[in-house]
Amino acid sequence: MPSLRELQTQFAAAVLADTGDRGERIAIYRNTIFANYRNALGATYPVVLQLVGRPFFDAAVDAYVLTHPSTGGDLNVYGDRSRRFPGKLSAREGTSLLCPTSPGSSGRSTRLSVPQTTTARPHRSWQGSPPFRATKSRCNASRSTRRAASSPPTIRYCASGR
Amino acid sequence: MRRSTGSAANYPLSLHGVGLSLGSTDSLDSAHLAKLKRLADRIEPARVSEHLCWSSVNGRHYNDLLPLPYTPEALDHVCARVEQRAGLSWPRDPGGKRLELFRVPESTLAEADFVAEVAARTGCGLLVDVNNIYVNARNHGIDADAYLARDSAPQPSRRSTSPGSTPAVLCLIDTHGTPVAPEVWSLYERARCALWAGAHADRMGH
After folding, report:
1. Where would you tag: which of A18, A42, B161, B181 has the fewest CB atoms within 10 A of its CB?
2. Which of A3, A5, A8, A65 to mutate to test the interface with B (most CBs of B within 10 A)?
3. Confidence at residue B196, expressed as pLDDT on a 0 to 100 scale
4. Are A33 and A16 contacting, i.e. CB atoms less than 8 angstroms apart?
5. Is 0.90 surpassed by the pTM of this model?
6. Which of A125, A131, A120 lies closest to A162, judged by CA?
C-alpha cells in the first residue's frame, strides 16, 4: 500500500492535472481550490478585476496559481504576497490571456481606457490602495490593432480626456 | 478583530481553523501555529478546533480541505499531530470532521472508527458537523445514524449544523449557502435526543 505521503502527493497531482483516474469528484476539489484563489486575489486586487473583467481575471489567476504555488494556509497572506500578480498579466504566462474576451477578437491586445479622476497610478492600485475609482460603467475597453504576439502584451492606462 | 476581542469579554467564542493542514505529511507550519496562538491568546476562546483533513504536501498549499485516507498510518500521524498542536496549551482542542466528497480507496478503516479513535487516543473533543455526516452518508452509502452512534467520542463538545446541501449530478455538496435541509434537521434531532443532550445548533458560514 502506498504511504500516506505518496497518497497525498498522488491526490494533489490529480487535482492539479484534472486528469486523475479517480473520478469526476476530484474535479469538485479542483474547482473549489481555484475558486478560492480567484476570490482571494479578486478581493486583493478589486481594481484590476474591474479593469480586465471577471473572465480574463479568472483565467489569469488560474495560470498564476499553477506557476506560483501557495506556500501557506492563510489565503489572505497568499493574496498579500502576490503583489506581482498584476505584473504577471503582462509576463509570459499571461500572454495568451491578454487577448480580448469578446468573440471574434482573438489575437489582439486590449486597451483599457480609464477616466482620469485623479492621477492614474496603476502600481498603487495593485497594492490595494486604488488611486482612482474605476467602475464597470466608467471603464471602457477598446481594442488596439497591435497584435499581441508582436510584443509582450500589457495593460495600458490612459486618460479619457475628461 | 476589535469586535471579536470585545465579544470575547462577554461571550465564550470558538475559533475554528481551516488552514493548519493537520493531516499533512509536511511539518506543521510553525509560523501559522504562532499566529493562531497569538490570536487565541488575545481572544481566549472557549474552544479551538481544526479540520480533520490535509491541505498541503511537498511544500505546496492547496488551501482546501482534502480527504485523508483512513489507514492505520494516517491514524497514527493525525494523533501525533493533534498531540503536537495540543502542546500549545489552548483551552480545548476538539478536532473537526470535514465534508468528504471523495473516499480515498486505499482506506482500510471506517470513517467513524477513524474519527472516534482519534478522539479516544488524544483526548480531544470532536466538533462534528451533522450536515457533513448527512452528506457523507448520502455520498458514500453509509448509515448516518450508525455513524453518529459510533462517533460518540469520550468528550463530545459540540454538534453543529451548517446550512446548505445542494443536490449535484454525482453527489451532494455542502454549499453553506442555503437553508439546512429538513433531513439534516431530523438527523440533528435524533442525534441530540439520543446521544448528546447538550448538543448545540450552530449555523456556520465560513
Report:
1. A18
2. A8
3. 56
4. no
5. no
6. A120
CA-to-CA separations, B25 to A124, B58, B76, B101, in angstroms, rounded: 39, 8, 11, 21
The partner residues of B172 in beta bridges, in order of sequence, read B167
Residues of B with CB under 8 A from a CB of A: 18-21, 24-25, 29, 31-32, 35, 54-64, 66-67, 69, 71, 73-74, 77, 101-102, 104-106, 168, 170-171, 173
Kindly determine whether residue B64 and residue A32, on different chains, have CB atoms separated by under 8 Å.
Answer: yes
Unique residue bearing C-alpha cell 483533513: B53
CA A103 from centroid of its chain's CA atoms: 20
Amino acid at B195: L
Closest partner residue to B20 among A32, A70, A73, by Cβ? A73
**Interface confidence: ipTM more than 0.85:** no
**Searching chain B, which residue's CA lies closest to the CA of residue A65?**
B62
Residue of B101, B102, B176 to mutate for A, most A C-beta atoms under 10 A:
B102
What's the whole-number mean pLDDT along residues B78-101? Answer: 59
Tens of pLDDT along A81-118? 545 676 666 544 444 444 333 444 333 334 433 333 33
SS3 at position B110: coil
Q: Residue A3 has what pLDDT?
A: 95
Which cell numbers in the block locate residue B5? 476581542
Round to the nearest angstrom and report the end-to-end CA distance of chain B. Answer: 16
- Specify the pLDDT at position B175: 62
